[in-house]
Amino acid sequence: MALKIGVLASGRGSNLQSLLDAISAGTLDAEIVLVISDKQNAMALDRAAAQGVPAVHLNPKDFNDRKSYDLAIAELFKERGATAIVLAGYMRIISRPFLESFPERVINIHPALLPAFPGLHSQKQALEYGVRYSGCTVHFVDEGMDTGPIIVQAVVPVEKDDTEETLAARILQEEHRILPEALQLLAQGRLRVEGRKVQIL
Ligand SMILES: Nc1nc2c(c(=O)[nH]1)N[C@@H](CN(C=O)c1ccc(C(=O)N[C@@H](CCC(=O)O)C(=O)O)cc1)CN2
Ligand SMILES: NCC(=O)N[C@@H]1O[C@H](COP(=O)([O-])[O-])[C@@H](O)[C@H]1O
């Protein structure tokens, strides 16, 4: 049975598109049942609508606090039957009540080799640190900031003339490969979280 995925996205939506493309290509056994964005102008909403996927903007300013916002999102996903949630460039911290609604079923894509360079502007952090290699990470989401158990990573070389933009573009290509790969492992029931580690069966 296809994995029913809910997606949270705040921006351009290229990682969402990589999931949509993998589903269309038959390499990801899933259905995206709903896309929610905290940003009204998020291109991710347009990408979803273009493929007939329900897409809604939910304004955090319409809620008293983060937890009530997150619980409203969780309810919308539950109503659509989502059993896995993907943060595809989602720029808000997810609170515990949401994570408790989808235990070990919330996944994030991060543009660095965690635990290096968590948080925002990871590509800039990597350049300023002077690393020779960076990359991207797909991980389960916990209450910490990019601290959840790691599922898949990909390594990307840093070139001497890289800018934040050129490095981000190189990493993004690998993000688009490993995010669908990780979700297919989840769809196949091949991921087992054992403490900090994720066993791939
Ligand atoms: N509980 C978790 N939530 C999220 C995680 C996570 O690992 N655990 N990953 C992040 C993604 N992210 C970086 O990888 C990230 C996103 C957002 C922020 C942040 O500080 N956001 C502010 C600003 C919100 C806004 O301006 O609209 C906020 O939430 O107040 C830091 C890191 C996704 N969530
Ligand atoms: N801290 C989270 C974070 O930085 N996420 C990053 O935002 C970009 C979203 O691009 P997209 O909207 O084209 O998928 C991606 O590079 C993703 O890794």
From TrEMBL:
PANTHER family (alphabetical): PHOSPHORIBOSYLGLYCINAMIDE FORMYLTRANSFERASE
Reactions that this protein is recorded to catalyse: N(1)-(5-phospho-beta-D-ribosyl)glycinamide + (6R)-10-formyltetrahydrofolate = N(2)-formyl-N(1)-(5-phospho-beta-D-ribosyl)glycinamide + (6S)-5,6,7,8-tetrahydrofolate + H(+)
Keyword Transferase assigned: yes
CDD domains (UniProt xref): FMT_core_GART
EC number(s) from the headed UniProt entry: 2.1.2.2
Protein name: Phosphoribosylglycinamide formyltransferase
EC top class, as a word: transferase
PROSITE patterns according to UniProt: GART (PS00373)
Function field: Catalyzes the transfer of a formyl group from 10-formyltetrahydrofolate to 5-phospho-ribosyl-glycinamide (GAR), producing 5-phospho-ribosyl-N-formylglycinamide (FGAR) and tetrahydrofolate.
Key word Transmembrane helix present: no
UniProt similarity note: Belongs to the GART family.
Residues the record marks as site: Raises pKa of active site His: 146
Residue numbers binding (6R)-10-formyltetrahydrofolate: 66, 91-94, 108
Binding sites annotated in the UniProt record for N(1)-(5-phospho-beta-D-ribosyl)glycinamide: 13-15
Recorded GO MF terms: phosphoribosylglycinamide formyltransferase activity
Pfam family, one: Formyl_trans_N
GO biological process: 'de novo' IMP biosynthetic process
Domain of life of the source: Bacteria
